[in-house]
Amino acid sequence: MVPFGCPNHPVAPQPVRRHSTRSCTALPKWKQPLDRTLQAHQCHEAPMSDVAPIDRSSTSDRVAAEVRRLIWTGELTAGERLNQDELAARFGVSRIPVREALIALAHAGVISMAPHRGAFVEPVTAEAVADIYELYARVDGFAIAKAVERGAELDQLIIEFRAAGSATSNDELFESVITARRHLHLLGGSPRFDAVARGLVGLVPGNFFDEVMGAGAVARQRLPLVAAALEDGRIDDAVAHYATMLRGQAGLVVTSLRANGALTEPEDA
């Protein structure tokens, strides 16, 4: 599986595999128009995402978000062919945003595209999930270290991490971590770094903490520890607590994918 990453990164050549010939025609739950089915979804979400709500995104972003949702729920399975004309008809959009969405998903490693053969859903393995969450941890850990190195004012970031840790609902927690992560990237990054961070896409659609059971508890436990370590100047501890949180969430994502029937097990790969 190609690592999920920056959309500007070229898609690595894919080995020739035998794909399922089942297309996206038979999707029993996929009945509503695009604007209705996507109203509650967001694009490019990650466990601590920094993106705008779906109603501000482009049509291609919305199509991509819906395809990710169908993969997450197991309605689209590994090896399944994605027909652009069928997708366009079902979403009630033109073929152009569908193609743009598929190209973006191919760059992210969620699907693969082959000339004269089409687009196919890539397998989602436990190893791939662990890798992407490790990448999240390293990118944001780098941002924390750079923010301290540059003498950035961390008081507001500390407040935001604490607010996330004390959130009483999943909606409040989700919004808090979006705010904190956006601020973290502003403090510790550069325009190029921010572009890389925004290019990371997640498997989980909508509110991460609603979709992944137990992920909220992990965040509420670890984010106050991150805040306390930053306040005390224990930067290595802050980075370590942050990484521990994401690794714990990675395991919960795997559990959710398996429950949805969306995880490719080693014997199926």
Outline the low-pLDDT stretches.
Answer: 1-22, 24-56
Q: Roughly how many Å is the radius of gyration?
A: 19 Å
Q: What is the string of SSEs from the N terminus onward? A: HHEHHEEHHHHHHH
- CATH fold annotation of the largest domain: Four Helix Bundle (Hemerythrin (Met), subunit A)
Q: Report the top-level CATH class of the largest domain.
A: Mainly Alpha
Instruction: Provide the spatial order of strands within the biggest beta sheet.
Output: 1-3-2
**Biggest β-sheet: count, sense, barrel?**
3 strands, antiparallel
Distance between the termini: 10 Å
Please give the count of helices.
11
Beta-strand portion reads under 5%
Number of domains: 2
Q: Report helical residue fraction.
A: 55-70%
Per-chain topology:
Elements: H1 34-37, H2 59-72, E1 81-82, H3 84-91, H4 95-107, E2 111-114, E3 118-121, H5 126-149, H6 155-165, H7 170-188, H8 191-199, H9 208-211, H10 215-231, H11 235-260
Antiparallel strand pairs: 1-3, 2-3
Helix pairs in contact: 2-4, 3-4, 5-7, 5-11, 6-7, 6-10, 10-11
Describe the model.
- A hairpin with a 3-residue loop joins strand 2 and strand 3.
- A 3-stranded antiparallel sheet has the order 1-3-2.
- The model is unreliable at 1-22 and 24-56 (pLDDT under 50).
- The protein has 11 helices and 3 strands.
- It is mainly α.
- Helix 6 (155-165) packs antiparallel against helix 7 (170-188).
- The protein has 2 domains: 34-123 and 264-268, Arc Repressor Mutant, subunit A (Orthogonal Bundle); 126-260, Four Helix Bundle (Hemerythrin (Met), subunit A) (Up-down Bundle), CATH 1.20.120.
